[in-house]
Amino acid sequence: MGFCTKCGKEIPEDAYFCPSCGARTLKGKEAGVSAPLDEVRDALSTMGRELEKAFETAAKEIRGAFETVRENVKQSTPIRPVICKNCGQKNLSNANFCTKCGKELVKK
Question: Which residue, 3, 36, 76, 94, shows the most beta carbons closer than 10 Å to its own?
């Protein structure tokens, strides 16, 4: 007598499947006997591994695309200072108020 690797119940030495849980035994695997449930389980396992690889590849491609877009935006967006009409101070292009005199900046 042996024991099932899935449920641990005792099984006959010549059994291809566990009489308790239905899992294929080592003898069943060696004999090439397959159960529909095992085939489905194996197919789903293979599909899961393939999907994981595909998602990893897609994630790398998306990260690369975002990096390319980020670089293109940086290069295409000119950084022009906004000059305060009140005091002449150069301010960052996204500023709404002058850093020197506090007046509202008029943007073109």
Answer: 3
Length of the chain: 108
**Which tens digits make up the pLDDT trace of 37-89?**
777 888 899 999 999 999 999 999 999 999 999 988 877 766 789 999 999 99
Q: Are residues 53 and 64 in the same domain?
A: yes
The C-alpha atoms of residue 15 and residue 13 are separated, in whole angstroms, by 6
Q: Cα–Cα distance between 22 and 30 in angstroms, integer? A: 16
Report the amino acid identity of residue 87.
C
Which domain range does residue 55 map to?
A: 36-77
Verify that 40 and 73 share a domain, yes or no. yes
Pair 11, 43 in one domain? no
pTM: 0.40
User: Do residues 27 and 42 make contact, with C-beta atoms less than 8 angstroms apart?
Assistant: no
